[in-house]
Amino acid sequence: MLAAQGIVIGLIENTFPSPFVFAPGAKLGLANLITVISLFTLPFPQVALLTFVRVSLTALFSGSASSFFFSLSGALLSLLVMSLIKKLGPNRVSIIGISIMGGIFHNIGQLIVARFMTSTTLIFNYLPIMSLSGILAGLVVGIVGNLLLYKLKKSCKLPHSLTTPLKNNPWL
């Protein structure tokens, strides 16, 4: 169900122009809300599988093989970094901070793929612009994700297997 939600969010977002006029090709990445929420409610292997399925099916429905590689590299690097940063604990970094780092590293992952596709390191000149868009996108996704996780914890109208991590989650 989470993968389907992420796919729908991603497909809808693809129909709108980018809010980042200074960074062609950049978008908010609202489908990453699903990754952020699942990172705090599910075990890592399930989150990784969910992310892979979401990115794969979104690319199948809306993109090309190259968009798949860009999306997958960004999503997996972002997930790995967010998971590592999350281990610092809620006293050192917030959900919003984790999401911002995810946004930055999502773009780094995409630039790494672009480097291999273009065979030039000049692509990394785009890193400052992409980092700014990653910070802004991560901020938006982090704020919304934080709000959604808070609402989920308060309502706890989820199956018991999902509410237990919410009830015991020191982040919320």
From TrEMBL:
Q: Which InterPro entries match?
A: Hpre_diP_synt_I, Hpre_diP_synth_I
Q: Which UniProt keywords apply?
A: Membrane, Transmembrane, Transmembrane helix
Q: Which Gene3D superfamilies match?
A: 1.10.1760.20
Q: Which residues cross the membrane?
A: 30-53, 59-81, 93-117, 123-149
User: Secretion signal: which residues?
Assistant: none
Matches recorded under Pfam families:
Hpre_diP_synt_I (PF07456)
Output this protein's name. Answer: Heptaprenyl diphosphate synthase
